[in-house]
Amino acid sequence: MQLAAMLGDAGAAFRLPNAEREAAVVAALRSAFASHAGHNAFYRAQCEAAGVTAADISSVADLARIPLLPVGMFKQPDAHVLMTAPLTDVELEIRSTGTGGVPSVARRDTTTATRVVTALIGQYRDFFGIAKGAGLFLSPSTAETPEMGMVKVFNLLNGLFDDHAYVVRDYAFDPEEALGLLNRWEESMTRHIIGPPFLVGRLLRYLELEDISLKLDPESLVITLGGWKRYTGESISRRDFDEKVERHLGVPAGRVRDMYGMIESNMLAVECEHHRKHVPPWSYISIRDVEDTSIELPAGRTGVIALLDALSTSYPGFILSEDVGEVDSSPCPCGRTGQTVSFRRRLQGAELGCCAVSIEKFLDSQEIVAECEVPAAPARTEA
Fold first, then answer.
1. Could you tell me the residue range of the domain that residue 133 belongs to?
2. Is residue 93 within 8 Å of 263, Cβ to Cβ?
3. Which of 37, 67, 97 is the last residue of a domain?
4. Does residue 221 sit in the same domain as residue 208?
5. What CATH number corresponds to the domain at position 196?
6. Which helix (H) or strand (E) holds 131?
7. Which residues contact 47 (CB under 8 A, 6 or more apart)?
8. Nearby residues of 218 by Cβ (< 8 Å), 6 or more positions away
9. Number of folded domains in the chain?
10. What percent of the chain has pLDDT over 70?
11. pLDDT (0 to 100) of residue 145
12. d(CA 318, CA 68)
C-alpha cells in the first residue's frame, strides 16, 4: 500500500496485515530517506559518514540504520541547515518553548502541511468517529497562538464539530465559562472536551470544589495531548485522572483518549479504547539504548524514542527525541496492527519542552501575581 493510498484510507491502513504493513512503512520511509539524502547537503553528509544509502533499506530491521537528527538541533540558531525544501516554500513554522525558554522551530513546506492535515483528519475519524457535536477546547485558539503545535493539532478537530469554543484567552482560564458552555449544549448536541491534561484537571478540580457532578453524553470523549508532567516536574496520575473524569463528568475511562507526539515530528500516536497509542503506518518508532543511541533495543525494552516519519518533505523526519519509553507490537483488541508506543519520562537532564508546559507555567505565574496584588485602600470620606 503506497503512502498516498494510506493517507486516503487511514482506517484500512491501520488494519493492514502485519507483513503488508511492514512492507508499506519500509517503502515509504526508504523513499523519504532517498529524497532527503539526495537533496539535502547537510543530511547527505550524515548519511555518507554513516555509510548508508537508500539501497541498504529493505526491511524493518534496516530502518535503524537511517541517520537521526537529535531534537536539540531544532533549537539551534542555524536550524535552517536541516531544511531539504527551500525556505521560500515554507508554509508553517511551529514552535514549542519548554522550561528553558529556548524555542524549537519546525518548518513545514506545502507538501508536508497537506500530508499532515490529511493524516490527522484520517486518524481523528478512525479513532474518534466524530462527525458532529460540540467541542469544548481547554486551550488557546490558533488566532491567539498561531505557532503553537499542540493548538494546531487540536484545531484540526474543529471541522468535525457543529459548534466549538475556546475557553483559554489571554492565558486565563475561567472554569465557570466552561461549565456554562457544557450546560448550554446539553440538550442539543454531544459534548466533547479537548485539552492538555493539566487544564482538564483544573476543570475537574473546580467541579470537585464546587461539588458539581455533570453527566455528559454516551458518545462524549475527553481528548488530551501535551504530556502528563507539570512544569514543576510533578506527574499527573493517569489512573486518578480517569477516575475523576468519570466521577465528575460521567465519561468512562474507555472514552478518555490521550495522544503522543512532538512538534518536530509529524507522527501523532492516538490512543484507542484500550489505552494503547497506535503508531501510524507511515511512521516507525525505534527505541534506542540510553547510553548508546546507535543501538536499537528490541520491542518491550525501555529506551530513548526515535521517530521516523515519511510525511516530511521539508526536512528529514528522522528524529532522536529526549523522551524515554517503549514500543509493543503485540496484537491489540481494537484490531489495529503495527506498533504502539508508551511514553515514560524525559531523559535525565532534558528540559520539559511542550506547549502545555508553557501554557501552565504562564497561567500559574498570572495567578500568583493576582494573589499577591495588594488591594487598594478604601477611599476616605470626610466626616
1. 68-304+322-372
2. no
3. 67
4. yes
5. 3.40.50.12780
6. none
7. 37, 53, 67
8. none
9. 2
10. 88
11. 81
12. 5
Buried b (16+ CB within 10 A) or exposed e, 29-45: bbebbebbbeebebbbe
Element counts in the chain: helices (H) and strands (E): 10, 16
151-159, long-range: CB < 8 A, 24+ apart: 151/355, 152/92, 152/94, 153/120, 153/225, 153/259, 153/261, 153/268, 154/194, 154/195, 154/225, 156/117, 156/120, 156/121, 156/124, 157/124, 157/130, 157/194, 157/223, 159/121
Neighbours of 17 (CB within 10 A): 9
3-state DSSP assignment of residue 309: strand
Q: Using the predicted structure, report yes or no on whether residue 213 has a pLDDT greater than 60.
A: yes
- The three-state secondary structure class of 194 is strand
List, in sequence order, the alpha helices (H) in 108-196.
110-128, 149-155, 175-185
* DSSP tag of 148: B
Q: Model confidence over 99-143: pLDDT tens digits?
A: 556 788 899 999 999 999 999 999 999 999 999 999 999 988 888
Using DSSP's 3-state secondary structure scheme, residue 111 falls into helix
Calpha distance 236→239 (Å, rounded): 9
Phi, psi of 215 (to 5 degrees): -130, 100
Give CA separation, 117 vs 4, 23, 256, 268, 349, in Å: 13, 24, 23, 11, 33
User: Are 345 and 328 part of one and the same domain?
Assistant: yes
* Per-residue cell: 137: 477546547
CB 284 within 8 A of CB 36: no
Q: 294-317, pLDDT tens digit by residue?
A: 999 998 899 999 999 999 999 999
By the 8 A CB rule, do 322 and 71 touch? yes
Provide the pLDDT for residue 211: 94
Q: What is the pLDDT of residue 349?
A: 60
Residue type, 1: M
